[in-house]
Design a protein that fits this description.
This protein has a six-stranded mixed beta sheet. The protein is globular. It has one domain: Nuclear Transport Factor 2, Chain: A (Roll). Helix content is 30%, strand content 44%.
């Protein structure tokens, strides 16, 4: 059943993310994938696997203890999984954060083709 395979892929995704294995994480995406992420600006952004690796290498250079904890997964149709998770870590100034995030993953032919991520991006 496709949903079960998708759930297994996304569980693996978060294990790989928390291990900071960016090469392996990037290989879970299609060669070029569509992203919506406040960190990338407004609207749809296409990123290659290499750009994804660079983005996460820079992020973990700034936040070495970055970790995501999945709260819930919501399979939706044959191609989508919505994941609610909390990202935590320590910023360069030594303060810690907990950021609730929701991502809608689109999975086609065993690869993530769309990664639409939503979180509160307002600075305090």
């Amino acid at each position: 059943m496709p949903t079960t395979n998708h759930e297994a892929l996304i569980k693996q995704y978060f294990e790989v993310f928390n291990a900071h294995n960016w090469q392996q994480l990037a290989s879970m995406y299609s060669e070029t994938a569509d992203f919506k992420d406040p960190a990338l600006g407004r609207g749809l952004v296409k990123q290659t696997r290499e750009e994804l690796i660079t983005k996460y290498e820079e992020l973990t250079h700034a936040i070495p203890d970055l970790k995501d904890e999945v709260v819930a997964m919501y399979p939706s149709g044959e191609k989508h999984i919505i994941v609610e998770f909390v990202s935590t870590g320590t910023t360069p100034d030594g303060s810690t954060f907990e950021l609730p995030i929701c991502t809608i993953f689109t999975i086609e032919n065993g690869f993530i083709t769309k990664d639409f991520t939503y979180y509160d991006n307002f600075e305090e």
